[in-house]
Amino acid sequence: MRYTLLLHYPEQDPEDLDEAAMAEAQQAMSRYAAALHQAGILREAQILQPSANTTTLTLVSGIAHAQDGPLAGTTMALGGLVVIEVPTLDAALDWARRSPSLAWGDVEVRPGAVHVASGAWVPSS
């Protein structure tokens, strides 16, 4: 079963980030990605640019309107995602608990319904 680990954490101004803390976080995420890869369960991972770089499309009367910024204004932002393939929710939760980003915010674990393989939608079970 595919699960997406959605990494939510407060965004900080780049000028406010401590370089040593940022380097430590990057190393921790690199080790986590390597562990997922070594276990053979990593399907995709991305750390996203700040939400200030987001453009959201909304359909109004059949016309897509673009607006700067994320869909919802909250103290936590979607900072990244990891897609893994494991046999059970418990296994997905175990890997989510290992995410270094859990120290900075929440990790949402969501089962996949379908995904694209070779250009076609297929069930994620």
TrEMBL record:
Name of the protein described by the UniProt record: YCII-related domain-containing protein
InterPro entries with a match to the protein in the record: Dimeric_a/b-barrel, YCII
Signal peptide start-end: none
Family, similarity comment: Belongs to the YciI family.
Residue ranges of every copy of the YCII-related domain listed in the record: 5-111
PANTHER family: BLL7171 PROTEIN, BLL7171 PROTEIN-RELATED
Entries under Pfam families matching the protein: YCII
Taxonomic source organism: Arthrobacter psychrochitiniphilus
Entry superkingdom: Bacteria
